[in-house]
Write a structure and sequence with these properties.
- The complex is a heterodimer of chains A (305) and B (299).
- Chain A is built from twelve helices and no strands.
- Chain A has 305 residues and is mainly α.
- With 299 residues, chain B is mainly alpha-helical.
- Chain B has 13 helices and no strands.
- In chain B, helix 3 packs across helix 5.
- Chain B is flat.
- The chains are: A mainly alpha (305), B mainly alpha (299).
- At the A-B interface, helix 1, helix 6, helix 7, helix 10 and helix 11 of A face helix 6, helix 7, helix 11, helix 12 and helix 13 of B.
Chain lengths: 305, 299
């Protein structure tokens, strides 16, 4: 088990390093970062001065090493636009995004797991068909459009919820639904498939033969085993969702890290963009690693692969 | 259709041919048929856009701004109304189908070539090649797609070509994962071993033995990734960092209508609904193709 964890950890670190290099290279994809920073009216000397000031005149790998070393210690440089340390900018915004992510995944699980269980209990029933429809529709629903429809209906027509912002819990209701609905189809399908498989196994027949109630069979015996892959999928989805929060946050003007990413991209604030790409990737890598370890811990067969 | 000449009695004895079974599965699958019909219709509309569109999708008219659609009291002059610059909404929707389908198809083709090459190589050769490809898939999955796509489009400038290339180079992961798994399965089959035993070269083995047998899975992923690319393009354009105005893109139309959403919600509802229907149709087709080609559903 320890060997498995160490191997996965090594792989995770290697992936993280590669991602960090790619997000760092974005700076150079933009052409001359010094010229971009100096603006269109700058003279050749100004550009040179900025080049030296920011250290763009040194070899790329040296710059990467320095950037990475600072990043590991939590220093991502200074934002071009806000003229503030990127790390404090992000730290300020991250709580909103984390909150949104936790609410979103909770909503997705609360919707998807019961629906998946019900669908598996009665395959091809009305409930199964509704669950299938919701998941197929969910995959095709453009999240930005879904968000706007919710705003039109619940904020403008019915006036039940505030349009945008993050002041109270009510502000998080619509963003949670939009973000959570995005993760729901995959979780629902996996719950349903897992339950169908478990329900046809011998120990469920035994439990039924012993006279256990249907509710007890479902939740005490079946779901406990079917839920394992669902939990690790939820962890992976959580990582994806944080990266996808950029769309949701921009629709609802929720000033989280996703909104900051959108603003920074629009303003060419590359140090902030680099840091955000790295941080969102790290979330995914950490959640993926946790999912792997959880799987291996619960199911020893996974450790060999 | 050589089967039609077979004696009915004989047909009863030997049963339906594999081709007949496939046709029965395809035409008997509701989702697949609905998806295919809708997609064919949208494709035809996109192909014949110049003939079908009632107006020039770029022509502005300051006197005819934000005319409502027919069902909200408008006239047949502009069946779906006009936008904030007085451009005919129906014509922009029709030309928007071209943009979406083109982006989806080309992006899926690019990522398909990259992902299939990686996946087949990993699955066939195994060992170090497999380790490298698996690592690259992990790296790709760790990068937040929307964020990276937005950043690259912002840096390189939003044009149709840039958006297509960025999506094409980002969405290869599912191709690689699925093609790797299918190749590993097929590699172990007897006919591959037989071909190898008679001295077939590796390229020949890959092209004539492996590829034809993983093609059904490839087609399924192509459809699903096409839908994915279309949704992403719409999201990028909605955020203002995708296809640039005045190009008629459905995501851009939603974004442009957003400011008038309070008074004219149809400006947002119509292009979003069309996008939803198109992606739904492609997904239904992809899911359906998976159902009818999956081995466990044979017979």
């Amino acid at each position: 088990m320890l060997q498995f964890i160490l191997k996965r950890l090594g792989l995770a670190i290697l992936v993280a390093l590669t991602v960090s290099f790619i997000s760092f290279s974005l700076l150079f994809l933009a052409g001359d970062p010094a010229a971009a920073l100096a603006g269109e009216t700058a003279s050749g000397e100004d550009i040179e001065a900025i080049r030296v000031l920011y250290g763009f005149d040194r070899p790329m790998l040296v710059q990467y090493g320095e950037w990475l070393w600072s990043a590991v210690r939590g220093n991502f440089g200074e934002s071009y636009y806000f003229k503030l340390p990127v790390s404090s900018l992000i730290a300020e915004r991250l709580s909103v995004t984390m909150m949104l992510g936790v609410c979103g995944i909770t909503f997705a699980l609360l919707m998807a797991v019961p629906l998946g269980v019900l669908a598996a209990m009665r395959p091809n029933s009305i409930i199964d068909r509704i669950a299938l429809f919701l998941s197929v529709a969910g995959q095709a629903l453009p999240s930005f459009w879904f968000g706007l429809i919710l705003i039109v209906v619940f904020a403008i027509q019915l006036r039940w919820l505030p349009v945008s912002g993050a002041a109270t819990w009510a502000h998080f209701v619509m963003p949670t639904i939009v973000l959570g609905y995005y993760a729901m189809p995959a979780i629902m399908r996996l719950t349903r498939a897992g339950m169908l498989e478990v329900l046809s196994s011998d120990y469920i027949r035994t439990a039924r033969a012993k006279g256990a109630s249907e509710l007890r069979v479902m939740f005490r015996h079946a779901l406990r085993n079917a839920i394992i892959p669902v939990v690790s999928l939820a962890a992976v989805q959580m990582g994806f969702m944080l990266g996808g929060s950029i769309v949701v946050e921009s629709i609802f003007a929720l000033h989280g890290a996703g909104y900051l990413a959108w603003e920074s991209i629009a303003r060419n604030d590359l140090p902030t963009v680099q840091a955000l790409i790295l941080i969102f990737s790290m979330f995914y890598i950490v959640f993926n690693f946790l999912a792997d370890v959880l799987n291996a811990w619960l199911d020893p067969r996974m450790r060999s692969s | 259709m050589a089967n039609t000449t077979v004696d009915p009695l004989l047909e009863e004895i030997i049963g339906p041919t594999p081709g007949q079974l496939l046709r029965k599965r395809v035409f008997g699958h509701q989702g697949l048929m609905i998806g295919a019909v809708v997609l064919v219709l949208i494709t035809l509309v996109a192909l014949f856009a110049p003939q079908l569109a009632p107006h020039d999708p770029y022509a502005q008219s300051l006197v005819a701004r934000m005319k409502p659609p027919v069902f909200l009291g408008g006239t047949w002059e502009h069946p779906l109304g006009t936008d904030h610059l007085g451009r005919d909404y129906l014509s922009r929707l029709i030309y928007g189908a071209r943009v979406s389908l083109m982006i989806g198809a080309i992006a899926a083709a690019i990522s398909g070539v990259i992902g299939t090459a990686m996946g087949v190589a990993a699955g066939y050769f195994g060992g170090r090649v497999d380790a490298v490809v698996t690592f690259l898939i992990n790296v790709r999955l760790a990068m937040p797609v929307v964020l990276v796509a937005l950043a690259v489009v912002a840096i390189l400038g939003g044009s149709l070509t840039v958006v297509i290339m960025v999506l094409g180079f980002l969405l290869w992961d599912r191709f690689a994962v699925v093609m790797r798994a299918s190749t590993r399965q097929v590699r172990e089959r007897e006919y591959v071993a037989a071909a190898r035993a008679i001295g077939a070269s590796t390229p020949r083995l890959l092209l004539t033995e492996i590829m034809p047998n993983i093609l059904n899975n490839l087609i399924v992923v192509v459809t699903l990734e096409m839908a994915h690319a279309i949704l992403l393009e719409a999201a990028l354009s909605f955020l203002g960092l995708g296809v640039q105005p005045p190009t008629p893109s459905w995501g851009l139309m939603v974004s442009e209508g957003k400011n008038m959403m309070l008074f004219e919600p149809w400006l947002v509802l119509i292009p979003g609904a069309v996008l939803f229907v198109m992606v739904l149709a492609i997904n239904l087709m992809g899911d359906g193709l998976r159902d009818v080609t999956a081995p466990e559903n044979r017979n």
